[in-house]
Design a protein that fits this description.
The chain has helices spanning 16-29, 37-41, 48-56, 64-80, 91-99, 114-123, 146-155, 169-178, 192-197, 210-218, and strands at residues 2-6, 104-109, 132-134, 162-166, 181-185, 203-204. It has 225 residues and is of the alpha/beta class. It has a six-stranded parallel sheet, sandwiched between helices. It is globular.
Length: 225
């Protein structure tokens, strides 16, 4: 079996607006100035407390827990309004194509908490699509390899048949640390050059290119098994 693991924010879903909304709430809660947009979004993919500490600085460590609570509360309130983060173009079709193969298992590894992943699945009809979910409340932050190791343990997948797909250098570094392949996507939060430098085997510009990229990396039979 092949295990194809996807990051969420910046890879499957466009969550920029929600993330910025949460960060603004977090910084406002402790009367700190919000970083500029580019800096703020550069930490997407890290677990929340790790991301906030990187943005706020070591001198504000004492505020991190309060900021994290404010961020989470803002996200829950946002979801209660019915707001959803849209899938990137082609994401659903790509997931359906992979799901049609009986030699492929799908998973997610994300800095989101589990409830955020479940909300994504419910919002876009993806419930049951992922056989393993690795989240910030179950493992250390990326680029620690624990998420991928846990996903392989849960599914029985081997490293040479496992790949991590993501939009940040954190995803690529996590894959490298876990001893599996990595594939970058160019539409997320880190530049393609950063993904390649961090270990990506390739970088795709649209989900239409995913099947060919995976086929090249794994040399698998492109016919549905």
């Amino acid at each position: 079996m092949y295990l194809v693991i996807f990051d969420c924010d910046g890879t499957l879903i466009d969550s920029q607006a929600a993330i910025l909304h949460g960060l603004e709430a977090a910084f406002r809660s402790v009367d700190l100035a919000m970083p500029d947009r580019r800096t703020a979004l550069s930490i997407v993919g890290l677990s929340l407390e790790v991301a906030l500490l990187r943005l706020a600085g070591e001198e504000n460590r004492r505020h991190i827990q309060s900021m994290a609570e404010a961020y989470r509360a803002s996200q829950i309130a946002l979801r209660d309004t019915g707001a959803t983060d849209p899938l990137y173009p082609g994401a659903l079709a790509a997931l359906e194509l992979l799901s049609a193969r009986d030699d492929v298992l799908l998973g997610v590894a994300t800095g989101k908490a589990l409830r955020g992943v479940l909300h994504m699945e419910e919002s876009h009809g993806l419930t049951g699509r992922f056989v393993t979910r690795q989240t910030a409340d179950r493992a250390p932050s990326k680029p620690h390899p624990a998420m991928i190791h846990q996903a392989m343990e849960e599914t029985g997948a081997e490293p040479h048949r496992t790949i991590m797909i993501g939009d940040t250098s954190f995803d690529m570094e996590m894959a490298k640390n876990a001893g599996v392949a990595a594939l970058g996507v160019s539409w997320g939060y880190h530049e393609a050059e950063a993904l390649t430098n961090a270990g990506a085997r390739g970088v795709i510009d649209h989900f239409d290119q995913l099947d060919a990229a995976l086929s090249a990396i794994f040399d698998w039979n492109r016919e549905v098994a």
